[in-house]
Structures are given as C-alpha cells and as structure tokens.
Amino acid sequence: MTTTTIPAPARAAAAQQAPAHRTSTRRAPAAGRAPRARRAALAVAAAVLAGLPAPATADAATGRNPGDADPAPARYTRQILDWQPCARRPALDCATMAVPRDWHHPGVGADLTIAVSRHRATDPARRKGILLMAAGGPGGTGLLRPADLAAGAPAVAAAYDIVGFDQRGVGESTRAVCQTKEEFQEFLAGDYRDRSPAAIDRVIANSKKLAASCRERSGDLLPRLTTEQTAHDIDLFRGLLGERKLSYYGPSYASMIGAYYGTLFPHRVERMVLDSNIGFDGTWERYELGQPMSFQRRFDEDFVPWLAARDATYHWGATPEQVRAHWERRRAALHDSPIVEGAVTIGPNQLDSLAMSAIYRASNFPDLARILATVDDWQAADPATRAAAAKAFDGYLSPEFLAEYFAVTCNDTPWTRDLDTWIERGAENTARRPLAGARTLAFSAVCAAWPAAPAPRVEVTGAHLPTTLMLNSVHDPSTYYEAALGAHRALRGSRLVTVTGNGDHGQYPGPNSCVTEVVERYLLADRAPERDLTCPSPQAD
User: Which of 102, 166, 235, 476 is the catalytic position?
Assistant: First the structure.
C-alpha cells in the first residue's frame, strides 16, 4: 500500500462543537426520582423485556442522551421480517417492512412499504455484525446492491451480513409517480443551450409541468421523501434485525444518508464509510451549482485528452482542441436534425446526458467513444449497433429516477424560487460550463415550482460519532472534491482518503489496493487512520 499523509483541514475546538440535530425535547428530572444510574438500568431492563432496542445512556460530558430521535411506535418495532429468496437475485434474502408515512406524525396517513435485503456473512465464525448500504442518486435503487458489494469485497462479505433496501419512493418500495415516459420526453426535448425567449419559456413551462404532475400523482407522499425520513427507516430496519449497532457503507448520495443517520442516531453507529461525498454540510442548491464545474473539468481534462490520444481508433481528433471542435459540430448537427431510432430521439440534450453518465468512471470511456463514432455516421452503422447506441441514450435519466431525485433535492433544503435568478444563472453556466451547466434552468426551475414542504434541518457535526472514513477522488464529476472537503470539515473527527490521479465516482470496492487496504483495515480490524491520507491511483494502460 502507498499512502501519503496530508494536513487535515482545520477543525473547531471540541468545546465549540454544535449539538447534534434534535427532533424531541427532554424535561429536567423531577425531584424525588430514582438516581440516574438506577433509572438507566431500569430503562434498559424494560426495553429488553419488551423486545425493543435498549435506550442509549446519557453522554458523560453533556449529561444528555446522544440519541435524540423519537423512538418508533411499538406497532412498527414488533414486526417480523419474513425473509425469502429475492426474485431477481436468489443469492439474497428479501423482505418488506412497514414504516410510517411521516415519522413525525406516525399515526397520520397510510403506511409505506420498504423493500429490504440481506447477504448473510459467509464466515459466521468471524461475523462482526451488519453492514448496511444505501443507494445513490437520489433515485437509485439499493435492494440488490448487497450482492454486488459481497462479490467485490469478499473479505467484508465473510465478516458481515450486508443489508440493503430500496429507499422510500423508489424501486420495490412505495414509489413516487410523476410522469409517463412519453410525457417525460417533453422535459428532455430541445436544446438546453438555446437562450432564446421562446426556448426559455418552454423550459420553464416543462419544469412547472413536471412539478405539478408530481404533486397531482404522488400527493402527500412527496413531502415525506426526504433524507431525514430515510434515516428513520434505516434505524427501524436495524432494530428489526435485532442489532444494537450497525456499520454503514454509503456511496454518492448515500453519503448524505449516512451523515444524517449518524447525526440522528450516533449511538447506533459502530463504523461508517462514506464514499464519493455529497456536500452534506450545506444545501442542495449550493451543491448542485458546483456540478457544472466538476462535470466540465472531468470532460475537458480527462475524457477529451483520452479520446484525442486514440484518434487512430475513433477518428474524433488528434488533439484536445480538435476533439472539442468535433463535439461542438456533432452537437450542432443534432440540434438541427435529431436522430430518431424507434421511440428514442437523440438530440443535443441526450448527447450531453450520455456523456455525463459515461464519465463517472474511466472504464466507460471506450463505450462512450464507440457511441460517439456511431453517431458520427449513424446510417452506416448496422442495425444492432444503432439499437445498442439508442438504448444507451435512453438509459441515463428516467421519470422514475427523477421523481425521487426532485422530491429529495427539492424537499431536503430550501431553494431560491425566483425564476429570474435561475434564468441568469443558467445563462452563465451555459456559457462557461455547458456540459452540465446548460440544464441549470430546467432542473432548478422544478425545485422553484415544487410544493413547499421544508424538511427538518439536520446539521451534520460528527458529535458523538466514532471516527468516520471518507473517500473521494480529485476529479469526480458528480460528488466533486471541493464539496467533499466541506463535508469533511463539517463531520468532525472524520478521516479523508484523497484518491489522486483519478476522477472515478465510487472508490470502493475497486482496483486501488491502497483504498482497499485502508477501508478493510477499518471495517475488519477496527483500525481507522490517525490522519487524512492520499492514495494514488494505479497507472492505467
């Protein structure tokens, strides 16, 4: 393993730490009550007899219970998970659990269904507990991911039951519904770079229509699709598994889920790995305004030079300048004459979206290059090649994914609702960082029109948590490094592993032996790094 120590970001003194987010208040002890130690012992005994998780003991320094969240009602905590082989992945067990529609008002509204899964530890004698993982997005599905993690990290799979779930709003859990596939095509139609008044009006109208269709078809479910509500779902799942604590692995948006869970339930966390980190120290609006920079950086500094070095194969230009000029010509041609293949329309927005999805990992670069070569001479390509390319263009964004994506990002934190602001920001991003910046107006206008339902504010501080391990590459296009640094500073006591020479999204499990050794030493031997580390990437051929 090769690691290099880098200075940790400055941290506030422990005495200045902000308290963890509170969702309930506690009264001062009344006179004449039993001494604290005896009361705690009685509470633990009562909980054990009732089959409920034992309450956390008060923090010695502050005299308060670090587990601030309200306990789940008994009708939820006494469920029995009926495990059966998963229909789509028999190597996993699947079950469902009922959760309140709103954890802050558990008696109001119909329950939601959460689909859960597990991969049993392959070496029960070495079992350390459960490793819970969540999916990214927001909008990704996580039910079958434990099987993938087990295959990629067999040493971890030997020691943990790896468990996962489809979060509320997606997959086999209670789902949000916004638009049909045909209706959704309007949202992605045209060219987001077009700054004409008519084009801007059309984009805003489509964004408002998407928000209105979500409200009409998902109703009172929408305000309950938040990261904070998902954290409560996770803790119920932990309790139903009979585990006092959990370990956690969360890539991408799941890093935010983990940070929120650790804030609400710090006494339930044994180990936590956050991989490719959302800027969970601030708002979604601030975080997403940084993504045009990072997607453009990844495209211009990593993919374009890679493609230029392979001009003999793909014929897109022998220099970065030639490749970029070719990209602009091809995009302009699609603006004037979109390709139609069956039910799929390939226009400039689809070209941008495909590139954005492909550059998440360098291993996707050859596939993207082959598709670009196909688009260059569509009619000359054989039908099977055209069909495969059309499927790739059709696969990045879906109405199901964006229903959850917009619900979470619009609900979690406040958004600017002034459309003139978004028209101005959209124009600036389109001019400077067009790959992702051109869609600024379309995406932000959805949240500007979203029904107001602010979620409880969760301030991530790291209070009462064990050392958290964070991973991030320096050129990640989506969870960009600058946001990871802010999240690292907020999560006091965390350790950041910076992966240099790399822009991949998701660092574990993978081919980097340095990252693997750090993560598995932490998860399997309980040895967290003493300070922040740098892991260089293996040199690719």
Answer: 476
Distances (CA, A) of 331 to 300, 334, 335, 340, 389: 16, 5, 6, 15, 16
Q: Please say if 252 is a catalytic residue.
A: yes
Q: How far apart are CA 163 and CA 149, in angstroms?
A: 10
pLDDT digits (tens, 9 = 90+) for 141-188: 999 999 999 999 999 999 999 999 999 999 999 999 999 999 999 999
- Active-site choice (213, 247, 252, 478): 252
Q: pLDDT tens for residues 270-297?
A: 999 999 999 999 999 999 999 999 999 9
Reference 77, options 41, 52, 114; nearest CA is 52
Measured CA to CA, the distance from residue 423 to residue 436 in angstroms comes to: 15
Annotated domain spans of the chain: 83-166+226-283+459-536, 177-219+286-412+416-449
Cβ of 15: how many Cβ atoms within 10 Å? 6
Residue keyed to tokens 């779902």: 233
**Catalytic status, residue 537:** no
Residue-wise pLDDT for 179-218, tens only, equals 999 999 999 999 999 999 999 999 999 999 999 999 999 9
Kindly give the residue spans of alpha helices, DSSP state H, lying in 18-153.
36-50, 74-77, 145-152
Q: What SS3 state is found at 385?
A: helix
Q: Which of 368, 367, 378, 307 is nearest to 342 (CA)?
A: 378
From the list 21, 326, 475, 505, the catalytic residue is: 505
242: left (phi over 0), alpha (psi -120 to 50) or beta: left
- The CB density around residue 373, as the number of other CB atoms within 10 Å, is 16
CB 310 within 8 A of CB 541: no
Q: Are strands 93-99 and 84-85 parallel, antiparallel or unpaired?
A: antiparallel
CA 299 to CA 484: how far, in whole Å? 19
pLDDT at 452: 79
Residue reference for tokens 């822009």: 503
Amino acid found at 404? E
- 420 catalytic, yes or no? no
Give 134's DSSP letter: -
DSSP 356: H
Are 400 and 139 contacting, i.e. CB atoms less than 8 angstroms apart?
Answer: yes
The CATH number of 83-166+226-283+459-536 is 3.40.50.1820
Q: Closest Cα partner for 252 from 129, 152, 137, 112?
A: 137
